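Work Package 3 (structural annotation) set out to generate three-dimensional models for the target panel prioritized at the project kickoff. During this period the team completed the workflow that converts sequence records into discrete structure tokens, so that structures can be stored uniformly alongside our sequence database. As a representative example, we reproduce one entry of 133 residues exactly as it appears in the project archive.
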Amino acid sequence: MNFHTRKWVKPEDLNPNSTLFGGRLLEWIDEEAALYTIVQLENRKIVTKFISEINFIQAPVQGDIIEMGIEVVNFGRTSLTLRCEVRNKLNREKVLEIDKIVMVNLGDDGMPTPHGKNKVEYVADRMKYRGNN
């Protein structure tokens, strides 16, 4: 799994227990999944359709640095299914796991539309394919 984004847990991210507020973490994960999907499907018009059970394992505290990992589980006709893992960068302990996040590709009409992708591509690969160096 590739870990793409790091976040620093700051005072405004804490719940009354002085640990990272779960809702803030889910906001960060949803944004990370959206950005990952936009890059993979080369379309800015995507939405989150489904997030499976969320397994909170360890609660980060103020000052911790967390990192979010996303990997593709499946390419659907109009969707991309992802898996997410969050870990604490400082102690390498898992913070959270989500087995299934379904992101849907939309057309100009706002309806699901086929994306034509069937494998993970890297930005450098696309740039080379398009003739850019």
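The chain has a mean pLDDT of 92.
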